[in-house]
Amino acid sequence: MNGLRSIVLVLCLCGPGALVADEAAPAGKTPSASNPGGNGNGEAGRGQMTRLEVVYADGSKVRMTVPATSVGVATKYGLLTIPIRDVRRIRLRPRVSDDQRKRIAGEIAALGDNEFARREAAMANLKALGLPAIADLRRATTSTRAEIRQRAVKLLEEMEERIPAEDLEVAQHDVVETVEFTLSGVVATSSLKAHSKFLGDVRVSFAQLRRLRSLDAPSRLALAVDAAQYARHGQWMQAGVEIEPNDRIVVTAGGEIDLYPDDGQAGMYMSTPKGAELEELVGARGGAIKPGTLIGRIGLKGKEFVIGERYSAFSYESGSLFLHITPSPINGNSTGQYKVKIDVTKPATNQPNEQPAGGNCAATP
Q1: Contacts by residues 303-308 (CB-CB < 8 Å, ≥ 24 positions apart)
Q2: Is the pLDDT of residue 365 over 80?
Q3: Helix, strand, coil percentages, rounded to 5, for the chain
Q4: Which residues contact 69 (CB under 8 A, 6 or more apart)?
Q5: What confidence tens digit (pLDDT) does each residue in 70-84 have?
Q6: Would you tell me the crossing angle of helices 116-129 and 146-162 to the nearest 10 degrees?
Q7: Domain total of the chain
């Protein structure tokens, strides 16, 4: 089969509402209505190429191009076809060989061995296996055998402390991000056909990859951050845009949310993305960031920074952009939304009046 082979995913919809792209991806010719990116069977349309960056399991990165095609997605609602030009990123769970799967199963069973030394050895072996063992360990936490269940819980706590949260998210499922929604499931294709400037024509095995992302996906987004979901402690919204060092990030936000709509107080404690100008709320929370403030971070463990109504900066970090609303100190039942626009560009040089994103700096005017 020519071009990118059909990718079949066993998927379920997840995450926040749809993102709305403000501009189309500049990927080759515009597809005709009769042939939107291919024939629906994984065959490439003529003259259309999509640029991708693939990241291998060892961390090495290679930029490639693939003929435009459609990605097949199997869901409980039927088969979806997504043009490859609309795929922003695919993050892949660790591929586990049959031999490795048998070993993991054996080590988990040994967590309940009669010999203490064997149980301890099994814990050490599973910890050394790392991320590939996470999915099976999570299932083991519901084991009917108390010893296995307790040791699996302890192992997960220890391993989840040292494994990056973004990697843990794909421990059981592949995550596919498009310009409008995010899917979680299993990429069933074995490889794709691509071209690299330095390697020539190659076939890339998904079993060897950690992730891939489009270099042609739209860099302007408009989305809504729902206070009911993201004004809660620990709840961050993945904005659907990937940031690299030296990218210029401009975020603008508007709207109002109600920090305390309960007990007949609706409309009394309103906030804009700059935060609530209410002394009782600021004093109750403490700290420099006001309740209701729109904040961001790059990567799941990146340093938080204030966005407010407008933020403009250059990044020195890489990863997904996440958004969060500083919670109300009164309760967690905030309502309303902030309307947010994100624009990411790659500047030639940094401007002196702007500071690196990801640091503890305020938005520039």
Answers
A1: 303/358, 303/359, 303/360, 304/360, 305/357, 305/358, 305/359, 305/360, 305/361, 306/361, 306/362, 306/363, 307/251, 307/253, 307/273, 307/363, 308/253, 308/273, 308/274, 308/275, 308/362, 308/363
A2: no
A3: 20, 35, 45
A4: 3, 4, 6, 37, 38, 42, 43, 44, 45, 83, 84
A5: 766 666 677 777 777
A6: 30
A7: 3
Q: Mark whether 65 and 26 lie in a shared domain.
A: yes
Measured CA to CA in angstroms, residue 179 lies from 98, 233, 239, 338 at distances of: 35, 27, 10, 20
Encoded amino acid at 75, one letter: T
In this structure, the answer to whether residues 232 and 148 fall within a common structural domain is: no
Q: Residue 234 sits in which domain range?
A: 220-357
C-alpha radius of gyration, the chain, whole number: 23
Residues 160 and 184 in one domain: no
- Considering the domain architecture, whether residues 238 and 89 belong to the same structural domain is answered as no
**Residue type, position 327, single letter:** P
Q: Which of 33, 16, 66 is nearest to 177 (CA)?
A: 16
Question: Tell me, what amino acid is at 125?
Answer: N
Residues 248 and 347 in one domain: yes
Same domain, 74 and 192: yes
Residue 76 resides in a domain: yes
Are 225 and 343 within one domain? yes
- Tell me if 4 is assigned to some domain: no
Read off the amino acid at residue 303.
K
Distance CA 179, CA 181 (A): 6
Q: Which amino acid is at 132?
A: P
Judgement on whether residues 235 and 317 belong to the same structural domain of the protein: yes
User: 107-151, pLDDT tens digit by residue?
Assistant: 999 999 999 999 999 999 999 998 889 989 999 999 999 999 999
